[in-house]
Structures are given as C-alpha cells and as structure tokens.
Design brief:
two-stranded antiparallel sheet; alpha/beta; about 375 residues; about 45% helix
Length: about 375
Amino acid sequence: MKNSTFTHTAFYDETSSSQRFIADLLEKADIRINGCRPWDINLNAQGVIEDALSHGNLGLGERYMMGDWDAESLDQFFFHLLRARLPEQLNPHKLVFHHLKNRLINLQTAKRAFQVGEAHYDLGNDFYAAMLDKRMTYTCGYWKNATTLEEAQEAKLDLICRKMQLKPGMRVLDIGCGWGSFMAYAAEYYGVECVGLTISREQAEYGKSLMKSGLPVEFRLQDYRDETEQFDRIVSIGMFEHVGRKNYREYMDVAHRCLKDDGLFLLHTIGKNVRGTSPDPWIDKYIFPNGELPALGQVTDAAEPQFVVEDVHNFGADYDKTLMAWHANFEANWPQFKDQFSERFYRMWRYYLLSCAGAFRARDIQLWQFVLSKKGELGGYDRVS
C-alpha cells in the first residue's frame, strides 16, 4: 500500500497552479486526488489533470482508456463531479472547434445516418446479448415495480403499449427499432403489426429471426426520412438522440406524415437540462458519433406546428439502475469477449456505462416519454403508470 500511495503521489504536484486549481475544484465535489474512498481519483501518470483542463471529458476519458487514472467506483466519481456541477466551471480551450462544428454543421444528414450504426450498434449481436436483457432492449427500463433488469424492461415495453392504447390489428411504426424488442412484445401481447426502421445491419440481420418466428414484424434498413407509409401508431424509443437539432423539425414532419389523423405518437428520448450546449466530445468520438441530446424546449418547439403534447413523463433516474445492470452483465461476461476486444475497449466501455450512470444519478441528464397527437384527444388523454 505504501508503494501504491507513493506512486500515485508522484503524479500530483501541489506546487503546480493547474493541479492545485483542479484539487480545490474537486474538493467542492468531495473528491480527493489520490484519496482512498471509492469515488476519489487516483493518478497513474503525468499530465492527466492538464489534459482534463484543456480537453474536458475528452481528455479525461482518453486518459482513463489508457489506464492513466482510476477510481474504484467510477459511477460514484461522476455522480459527485456532476452533482456539484463542476464541468460548468471549466472552459476547455481546445474544444472550440468541437463546439463550432456542432453549431454550424448538420452532422446528422441522411448521408451520415448509418455512421452510428457501423460504429456502435454493429459491434456484434453476441456482445449486446451478453449485456442486455433477453429481449435485447437497449433503452431505459422502468423500475417502479421491478427488481431485475428483465422485469424493468418488460414493464417499460408494456407501459408504452398501454400509453399507445394498442388494439389488435393496428399497424405500428417503430422509428429506430433496435433489435425489435418493442415490436416483438407488442405483436405478441397486443396483437398489432409492426414495421421497424434501423440503420444497423446487425440489427436488421437479427430481425430476420423474429420475422421467421411468425411474428407480424418487419425490419427496414433505412433512414427515417425515407418512410412514407401511414400507421395507426408511431413509437420512437431511444432514437431521437441521433436526430440533431438541425433536423428536429424535419423529424416531426416525417412522424406527422406517417401518422393517421386519429393516431398517437410516443417519443422516448434522453435529454439535457439546458439547450445551447454541445454534445459531450468523448461520447461523440467513441460511443455515439454525431449524437446530440435535446433540451425539453427543443422537443416541444419542433412538435409545436404539428402535434399536441398530450403527456410528458420523466423517469430519468431509472436509467441509473438500467446502466448499472448493463455494467454488471458486461463485467460478468467480459471473459468471453476479451480476445475479441482490447483492454482499451474494455476501459472505454466501462467509462461509457459508469459515467452515464453517474450522470443520470446526479440528474444531469433526463429520460422523457412524450405522448403526442395530431389534433388533441377529445376529452383529454389519460396517462397510465
């Protein structure tokens, strides 16, 4: 233990103004450099603090991937960091181009639509099957009355079906259908027919097995902007994060075009508290290329000309539990993938899951479900829970 303490201490210089500045800032979040509590940061190399100052979470994340720092409980580290709103007190000067790029360029054009599928969702169906629930549901579970990941995901799927007031024979469009968990559940338990859109070839391939099982579901490997059919109901579960602010209005136009006049549209999306901020540079580079979280007002602004907002439901705190369950599965099953992926990938994926869990726990980001109608539900819309 003495040797470990000495090693960590060697990488922290109290006489350095930048390191002292960060240390004082971290104290506000009750985080200590080279401390012994689970959420304390321990330095394993020189320059970690300087990279965090100049590159923000991009520098911090990349140095973590290299093994240059650790925290026993990474989710707690980020909870403390974000609950104290420390990132708001930093202005990494080397991220100016990143901010300008996201403000000025449409990064979510139809030509770019398949990039996130290739970079993230096409890692392999076996990999995701080991991390997710049995239905391969890669969105937030609903933990109100659930104790396991399986229960939470089934509760979420059923919640959506009931919010959509599904009836046998309805045709439902799922924009961003993932591995088809919602479509399979809705088809089996509510007797509806489903069409799902995905930009992932791996997901589309997986969907063929569902189609062969006799369920009335269809996977289409296409961008949402290319859909023209009309449906009784539309759901979009965890896809709006890939649309981008410059395309929100067009997205709503597509949903309006594809929804029958008496239909309902459920939009399930992660969101941020304040508009005008840029996407996290580390997440953008390593996890979800060209992604962007909307603010609440941006969703309603985009919906305003076309839809009546019938209901908004925030259960963002449930994403913390979901991500921690995914992380537990990832850790338990990592031995079967360690020869396929590198140690750097392992640390990257841990950083992704646990930093996001900490962010939801700190209520730094949210999870909303909107129910929208074209003309407003006569007599009002009754929310189920």
